[in-house]
Amino acid sequence: MEIEPVATLEPLRQEWTELATRSRSVFKTWEWLSTWWDHFGQHRDLMVAAVRSQDRLVGILPLYRWRSRPLRILRFLGHGVGDELGPVCAPADRPVMASALRRVLGESRWDLLLAEQVPADEDWGGELGGRVLAREGNPVLRFDADGWEGFLRRRSANFREQVRRRPRKLAREDEVR
Fold it and tell me: Is 114 found in the same domain as 148?
């Protein structure tokens, strides 16, 4: 396993996009996290690391130094507005990423990793020897192979009508982008 620090997000864009598809979360995509960084990362130190095995990108540790005094605190990119944070990797690669994260944390100067909005079923606290301070619900809608349209076909006519009507109403009343 090779851990490569990354100074900016752009060089990983293509590989990140492919990897994020396997992670199954929009909040781990390059587009989401780079946009978040552009708007919320102001004057902070990026601490992103690419984890490779045999020249294949296994995962990305999207961290940054949030605060340096009185404690040096690390956080995952996307906190606050993202619903599923943490390492970007395929589910099968989580054990490798846990090992990589432990190694990065062991070699970095930090006092606290504040890992919010990480999926509870991934047990990152247990993997890292951390302590869970709080849990909160986070409903996730997963689609079958037939996607959004297939999901809608299996719902009531009333539900489908509301799902289609409300965005149009919002667009009439406000600017939507």
Answer: no
